[in-house]
Specification:
CATH topology of the largest domain: Aspartate Aminotransferase, domain 2
Number of helices: 16
Number of domains: 2
Number of strands: 14
Order of helices and strands: HHEEEHHEHEHEHEHEHEEHHHHEHEEEHH
């Protein structure tokens, strides 16, 4: 049996390319933040995680350029050895203060942050419990850990309570959840979650990748609920609101020091390059000194959510600038994506296993830098294409009957 046989026989992507509905790995030729260039034409971007639009902020761009000029493009080594710069420590100190924690630790990517931190914390006799809608990096981190993994139905904290109720007296437990769930856009019920964890003596780890810059005046899920002291570890990424690349964890000093010395993805990866480090630091400063970006983000999110709902689209349970358009059928979802793309609108089709089978959706997300004119144009395209495909309007009502 040739181990490559499955590779040669796999036809799904090739078939989609032949039919012209393959939506992935589209090579963009340029970007202005809210708009991108593809094959010589400009497309309105509503599929980015650039929530505050800081990739085009002059302070962030200048900081990245200064980092390149002063330190070069790479540290050429691990943080553990020759790859730690003074600016890494400076960024970590500022992040810890921003998050209201004793200490923070910067990783080279968000994926590596979860892989390293969770697998370092969960030992052989420990239990890690995750929401079924948690990000793939959390799922993979659990696979790498030496402990036992259990999952609870998305948002079902009563089931989590029952799982923790069966915890052995000599078992440590870590509950890991997203603050904002990346596909549905809903926010974790943190007040109830904190109560359940405290009831059973479990520690709580919140992935704030899609919460930082968005909730709690930019400071994340715990700040949104006023529960900063009740979340043991907060994880964040720089590839979204921070307009850079990388990630971090923040928590008690002793816990962060443990992760620093036992997280394999931290120890055995080259450190975050200076341009990315300084861009993230500049983005953090902008979040602290220019609150208008968060305010504009929420104005745009509310405008689009109302507009899409008024048109008749199913937007699920979202509460954030991540607004899914739930379609259900995979083929119809891909057709909607292609029609929108051809009409000048960039969205992201999402099918199983990223979402449950039969829950295919278009993931849309919005930026502080979108203009009202751009968003109105987006709604007009949604109305035209959605009506033509029978997803909204009279045809959709007739099909439902």
């Amino acid at each position: 049996m040739d181990i490559f046989r499955k590779c040669y026989e796999w036809e799904e992507a090739k078939s989609a390319i032949r039919r012209g509905v393959y939506p992935y790995f589209r090579a963009l030729e340029g970007t202005e933040g809210t708009e991108v260039w593809f094959e010589g034409r400009k497309i309105l971007m509503i599929g980015s995680n650039n929530y505050l639009g800081l990739t085009t902020h002059p302070k962030v761009k200048a900081a990245a350029a200064l980092g390149l000029e002063k330190y070069g493009p790479s540290c050429t080594g691990s943080r553990f050895l020759n790859g730690t710069l003074s600016i890494h420590h400076e960024l970590e100190e500022k992040l810890a203060a921003f998050m209201g924690k004793e200490k923070a630790l910067v990783f080279s990517t968000g994926m590596q942050t979860n892989l390293g931190a969770i697998s370092a914390l969960v030992g052989r006799n420990d239990l890690v419990i995750v929401d079924k809608d948690d990000h793939a990096s959390i799922v993979d981190a659990c696979r790498l850990s030496l402990g036992e993994t259990k999952r609870f139905v998305h948002g079902d904290l009563d089931q989590l309570d029952r799982i923790l109720g069966k915890l052995e007296s000599d078992q440590g437990a870590l509950v890991v959840v997203d603050g904002v769930f990346s596909m549905g856009g809903d926010i974790v019920d943190l007040p109830k979650l904190v109560k359940v964890c405290k009831k059973h003596g479990a520690r709580l780890y919140v992935d704030d990748a899609h919460s930082l810059g968005v909730l709690g005046k930019g400071r994340g899920t715990a700040a949104h609920f006023g529960l900063q002291k009740d979340v043991d570890i907060t994880m964040g990424t720089f590839s979204k609101s921070f307009a850079s690349l990388g990630g971090f964890v923040a928590g008690d000093a002793d816990v962060i020091d443990w992760i620093k010395h036992f997280a394999r993805s931290f120890i055995f990866s080259a450190s975050l390059p200076a341009p990315n480090t300084m861009a993230a630091m500049a983005a953090l400063e902008v979040m602290e000194t220019e609150p208008e970006h968060v305010e504009r983000l929420w104005d745009n999110a509310h405008y689009m959510l109302k507009g899409l709902k008024d048109l008749g689209f199913n937007t699920g349970a979202t509460e954030t600038p991540i607004i899914p358009i739930i379609i259900g059928d995979d083929e119809l979802c891909f057709n909607l994506w292609k029609e929108l793309f051809d009409a000048g609108l960039y969205t992201n089709p999402v099918v199983a296993p990223a979402v449950p089978q039969g829950m295919a959706l278009l993931r849309t997300s919005y930026m502080a830098t979108h203009t009202r004119e751009q968003l109105t144009r987006a709604l007009e395209i949604f109305e035209s294409v959605g009506s033509r495909l029978g997803i909204i309007g009279a045809r959709a009502e007739a099909l439902a009957l």
